[in-house]
Amino acid sequence: EEQLVESGGGLVQPGESLRLSCVASGSTSSCHDMSWFRQAPGKGREFVSLIDTAGRTRYADFAKGRFTISQDNAKSTLYLQMNSLKPEDTAMYYCKALCAGSRTYWGQGTQVTVSS
Fold it and tell me: Residue 20: which residues within 8 A CB-CB, separation 6 or more?
């Protein structure tokens, strides 16, 4: 059973940065795609970024040039560096793991609020 715990969210001003972390425990060796999603109030959950086991990355258009996904396999930790944050980035950010057998796991989320 895979467990994901996000952290690093908070309240920041526009233009500032945050780094989100997602610590995975359990059968992490069977997971091949790790990704970040977000959900703003009143909106559906949307894709932010993905990294696969080969280190290939993919980003939503709004994240390109501002967000960077990375992982530290030794620490079983996924990161999302977010720079030049905007008020529209305000959302709950979730970590997702796609593992062998198409099993999918989600974390509980970490809140990011961008406001002056």
Answer: 6, 7, 8, 9, 36, 79, 80, 82, 93, 95, 110, 112
87 DSSP β-pair partners: none
What is the tens place of the pLDDT at every residue in 45-78?
Answer: 999 999 998 999 999 999 999 999 999 988 889 9
pLDDT, average across residues 33-39? 97
**How buried is residue 34: exposed, middle or buried, by Cβ count under 10 Å (0-12/13-18/19+)?**
buried
List C-alpha distances in Å: 39 to 44, 47, 109: 6, 9, 9
